[in-house]
Amino acid sequence: MAQTIRIKRSAVQFKVPLTGDLELGELAINTFDGKLYTKKDNGTASIVEIGAGGGGGSISITDDNTTNATYYLGMATATGGTLSSLNISSSKLTFNPSTGNLVAGGTVTASSDEKLKENIETIENALDKVLNLRGVEFDRVDTGEHQIGVIAQEVEKVIPEVVYPKGPAPDYETKSVAYANLVGLLIEAIKEQNDRIDELEKDLKKIRGKRDGD
After folding, report:
1. Type and span of the H or E element at 176
2. Contact of 165 with 190, CB cutoff 8 Å
3. Taking 70 as the threshold, does the pLDDT of residue 139 lie above it?
4. Calpha distance 39→22 (Å, rounded)
5. What are the residues whose beta carbons fall under 8 Å from the beta carbon of 97, sequence distance 6 or more?
6. Helix or strand or coil: residue 123?
7. Cys-Cys link to 10, which of 15, 24, 71, 100 (CB 3.0-4.6 A)?
């Protein structure tokens, strides 16, 4: 029996058909973007992009740092082979190209297990290092947003371990700070400061004791 494949067409940029727009077996082509879509239903109906950027299953890549919109980061369930599906989380993990803001709707952690480390030592002179750091408030050049933080080049002179990339970097590279890694320094700085306070309190008690005994 002969079967007919129906094709629907749109010339609207970025237009993607909805599941209600296609019946199973139908195709939709976007003539502006050069993309082809079909509908699948394996218990849950969804739209699948067959090809883009000139066909052959290729995917076009664009360097986008201006679009002020929410993007959803794709997640795969495999680490190799052929990718047949991609999952997103519309409320748990998002990215905005224009601001560079990455938002996770949960706890973000970093591997810190003892088995991953060697040559472990307590940070020395932590309070002196903190006193040599400068907290600043500033306006971002790219977004105009008013923020607070530190200057990577200044931090690098005191604790280079938290600044990336390491060592001298060409002008076109932007330095970044691993803010979470400052926690260890702050912990030891508070402990050192507390020891100094304890010593001062002991000295003060001695002075008061001598005064009261006179």
Report:
1. strand 176-177
2. no
3. yes
4. 6
5. 64, 65, 66, 67, 68, 69, 71
6. coil
7. 15
Alpha carbon distance 49, 91 (integer Å)? 23
Whether the model pTM is above 0.70: no
137: β partners: 148
Tokens 């067409």 belong to residue: 9
Contact assessment for residue 28 and residue 37, using Cβ atoms and an 8 Å cutoff: yes
Tell me the helices (H) and strands (E) count for the chain, helix number first. Answer: 3, 11
Cα separation, 16 vs 12, in Å, equals: 9
- Give Cα 2 to chain centroid, integer Å: 52
Phi then psi for residue 128, to 5 deg, are -60, -40
- Is the CB of residue 97 less than 8 Å from the CB of residue 71? yes
Task: Write the single-letter amino acid at 173.
Answer: E
- Residue showing tokens 């307590």: 122
All residues at 6 or more sequence positions from 213 whose CB lies less than 8 Å from its CB, including other chains: none
Calculate ∠ Cα 114-150-127, nearest 5°.
Answer: 60
| Band of pLDDT at residue 152, cut at 50, 70 and 90 | very high
Residue 37 pairs in a beta bridge with 28, 49
The distance from CA 53 to its chain's CA centroid, rounded to whole angstroms, is: 28
Residues 188, 122: contact at Cβ < 8 Å?
Answer: yes
